[in-house]
Recover the amino acids of this structure.
């Protein structure tokens, strides 16, 4: 019994110390981590809609989006899109103008297979943006589909389809709701 | 036990007892992460940090921890250090943290870390434990770099993200799991061959 108590005590002390250290680290890094995510999102927004000068975050029926403002008028929408990728969610931001024409897509986070699905974000040498995402530019968000007007990545049909379908559905959904 | 010099304690992890090629520990993260040299270096450095941190601590408290509950104690200490590394990476190196993704939390179950805690740090003083885990960590890192260099160059046609030769059509196979098994198998085989020749 005595020994049992000692074991418990030692384990308990170690766990307590570990909890303390973790709590401090978490508190110290938390604002930094949030800042990083924000900065990432802001730079994605800027690259999608370079002409807009401010973004206002809004939510409609569970769809999170940003209104891109040029001065006082709304120039377009940047929508948070999550696709069901091969290895987990693909978080993206898709920018459309008021008619629903895609201005740009940016992938914030993905865990697709390196060398295959991860090519959704691959930039070829000498180019400034991912070649797969570039295909979406100038197309109407409601019409995009693999095999019709978007070429899938070789060996990564699931990832390509996840990106395309998620953007079409979410953006279409939002634009439909905004018109009401 | 204390026959080896301090320098020997450090060097043995690099070659003679290299965790990947000689002891063949921690192959799960090795297979998963060695798709690009970048990931290999990141994983190696993160694992080294956890190794050194956790082993200093375990070596310091080695006489306090009762033998019967040592494994849960080691796991708690290791998990704590891994979480610290993960949070720090997210806050200060977001790009690296994104490319390593799930593999950082997986250091918790990396056999090299628990293996060194059990086999070495719980029996040796801190200075030796630091040198031992540093050597093991660097040994793991260079092994990862070699494997990922082979896989990235053959499987993606790049090294550290730069294209080697545009006319070369990379063999996708090398970047997938079978390519990792093949690379590691051939490397271990070659090393064993040379070692047996030298004897």
């Amino acid at each position: 019994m005595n020994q049992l108590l000692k074991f418990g005590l030692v384990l308990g002390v170690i766990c307590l110390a570990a909890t303390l250290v973790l709590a401090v680290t978490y508190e110290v890094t938390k604002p930094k981590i949030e800042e990083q995510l924000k900065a990432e999102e802001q730079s994605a927004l800027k690259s999608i809609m370079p002409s807009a000068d401010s973004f206002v975050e809004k939510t409609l029926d569970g769809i999170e989006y940003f209104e891109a403002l040029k001065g006082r008028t709304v120039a377009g929408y940047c929508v948070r899109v999550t696709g069901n990728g091969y290895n987990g969610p693909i978080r993206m931001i898709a920018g459309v103008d008021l008619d629903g024409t895609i201005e740009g897509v940016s992938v914030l986070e993905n865990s697709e297979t390196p060398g295959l699905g991860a090519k959704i974000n691959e930039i070829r040498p000498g180019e400034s943006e991912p070649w797969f995402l570039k295909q979406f530019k100038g197309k109407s968000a409601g019409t995009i589909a693999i095999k019709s007007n978007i070429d899938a990545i070789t060996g990564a049909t699931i990832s390509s389809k996840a990106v395309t379908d998620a953007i079409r559905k979410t953006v279409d959904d939002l634009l439909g709701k905004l018109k009401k | 036990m204390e026959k080896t010099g301090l320098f020997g304690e450090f060097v043995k992890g690099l070659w003679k007892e290299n965790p990947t090629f000689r002891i063949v520990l921690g192959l799960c993260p090795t297979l998963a992460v060695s798709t690009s040299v970048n990931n290999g270096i990141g994983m190696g450095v993160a694992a080294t940090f956890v190794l050194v941190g956790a082993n200093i601590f375990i070596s310091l408290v080695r006489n306090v921890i009762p033998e019967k509950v040592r494994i849960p104690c080691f796991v708690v200490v290791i998990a704590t250090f891994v979480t610290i590394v993960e949070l720090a990476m997210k806050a200060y190196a977001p790009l690296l943290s994104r490319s390593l993704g799930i593999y950082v939390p997986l250091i918790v179950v990396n056999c090299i870390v628990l293996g060194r805690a059990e086999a070495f740090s719980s029996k040796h003083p801190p200075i030796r434990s630091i040198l031992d885990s540093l050597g093991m960590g660097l040994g793991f890192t260079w092994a990862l770099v070699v494997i990922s260099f082979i896989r990235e160059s053959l499987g993606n046609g790049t090294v550290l993200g730069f294209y080697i030769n545009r006319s070369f059509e990379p063999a996708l196979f090398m970047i997938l799991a079978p390519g990792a098994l093949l690379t590691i198998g051939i490397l271990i085989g070659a090393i064993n061959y040379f070692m047996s020749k030298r004897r």
Observations:
- Residues 45-179 of chain A form one domain.
- Chain A has one domain: 45-179.
